[in-house]
């Protein structure tokens, strides 16, 4: 069974059909640049371009870099245009996609669900936090496999600033920080999140996760286990497709053993 997933980011919009039984992309993803400014109309056009690239005609799951309620409505827009706030994104995107059914959810929540059910968090219990480092810092919080949606921990205050303004990948690039300098910032951020939530596991995602060997060994004083995401920068696409499935678009393979196969995400049911 395949459903299409789209991941809207501050710099790029990428998507592909997802094989739900394997929990991975069915084809190589297609990416376009996020328009600047990232207005609802501009981003919707980008999503349409990605979906039409595959001549797709079925359900579509879409991630958004902000708080999403009810699978439809945008409540915050830190790294895209403020015109998004209050928009029924599902309705807008469905109209732009000629009536295809659309489900929308927070981008980090989507990535976290994918990692918990087919990646680095598979079979893990207790408190797990997925953090995606990119234009900002996204977060997904799980307790015994259940998602607590829209946590937005990248906006915690750290030294008088939004944490993502100091510890995101964009902050590293904007200030030309060395791996050592950036790792110290990430360490302070992780220590702050750990103080608040006491997780057993941090999953580090986003595009930077493919270079985890360059910074994770430099982080000290964090008690929780820290591991890179396995689905890397495709996790959002996979999680978006899973959300569309959980919303009723199509069944997800459910297996008897929680540590084998691909299971329906409890937090999205």
TrEMBL record:
<protein>
    <submittedName>
        <fullName>ROK family protein</fullName>
    </submittedName>
</protein>
<dbReference type="InterPro" id="IPR000600">
    <property type="entry name" value="ROK"/>
</dbReference>
<comment type="similarity">
    <text>Belongs to the ROK (NagC/XylR) family.</text>
</comment>
<dbReference type="InterPro" id="IPR043129">
    <property type="entry name" value="ATPase_NBD"/>
</dbReference>
<dbReference type="Pfam" id="PF00480">
    <property type="entry name" value="ROK"/>
</dbReference>
């Amino acid at each position: 069974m395949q459903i299409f997933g789209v991941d809207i980011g501050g710099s790029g919009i990428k998507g592909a059909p997802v094989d739900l039984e394997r929990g991975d992309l069915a084809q190589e993803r297609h990416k376009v640049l996020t328009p600047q400014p990232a207005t609802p109309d501009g981003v919707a056009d980008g999503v349409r371009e990605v979906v039409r690239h595959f001549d797709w005609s079925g359900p579509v799951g879409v991630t958004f870099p902000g708080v999403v309620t009810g699978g439809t409505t945008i409540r915050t827009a830190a790294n895209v245009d403020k015109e998004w706030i209050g928009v029924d994104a599902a309705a807008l995107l469905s109209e732009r996609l000629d009536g295809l059914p659309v489900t929308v959810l927070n981008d980090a929540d989507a990535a976290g669900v994918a990692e918990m059910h087919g990646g680095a968090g598979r079979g893990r219990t207790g408190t797990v936090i997925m953090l995606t480092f990119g234009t900002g810092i996204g977060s997904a919080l799980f307790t015994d496999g259940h998602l607590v949606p829209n946590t937005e921990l990248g906006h915690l205050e750290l030294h008088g600033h939004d944490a993502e303004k100091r510890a995101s990948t964009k902050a590293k690039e904007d200030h030309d920080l060395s791996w050592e300098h950036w790792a110290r910032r990430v360490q302070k951020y992780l220590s702050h999140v750990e103080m608040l939530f006491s997780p057993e596991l941090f999953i580090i995602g986003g595009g930077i996760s493919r270079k985890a060997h360059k910074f994770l060994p430099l982080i000290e004083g964090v008690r929780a286990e820290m591991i890179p995401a396995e689905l890397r920068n495709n996790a959002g696409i996979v999680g978006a497709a899973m959300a569309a499935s959980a919303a009723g678009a199509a069944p997800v393979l459910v297996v008897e053993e929680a540590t084998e196969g691909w299971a329906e995400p409890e937090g999205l049911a």
